[in-house]
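Intended use. Records like the one below are meant for learning the mapping from a protein sequence to its folded structure. Do not use them to infer anything beyond what is encoded.
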Amino acid sequence: MIRKEIKNEEQQTRNVKMILLLKTLLPRLVALVPFVVPIVGDKTLLVWELSSGHTAEALQHSLFTVFSQFGLLYSVRVFPNAAVAGPGFYAIIKFYSARNAHRAQKACDQKQLFQTSPVKNSQS
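Structure written out for the chain above:
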């Protein structure tokens, strides 16, 4: 009986040590992102000078493919330019994480992502 109690205590001690280890390591390894509608501007990118040689649907797919590499996206919306701006499109891309939006903005601004001319983007 005593041996069984000692084994149980040893197992409990190991479990406590493992829990403490996980509590210290997990915050460094995992970023928790709340899945709520992004309403803060620092999670939103405005992308413009998108080519008029593509359809809005094709641009949306291309933008999703490029920007989802930086993190989870809430939405990718493509709009035609106003008549005074000339032919082409612009897009609004919303991330769940401001950090991922910032990384995407830095990496993609003034780059030829999927078209011959570079796109421009700005974090709102």
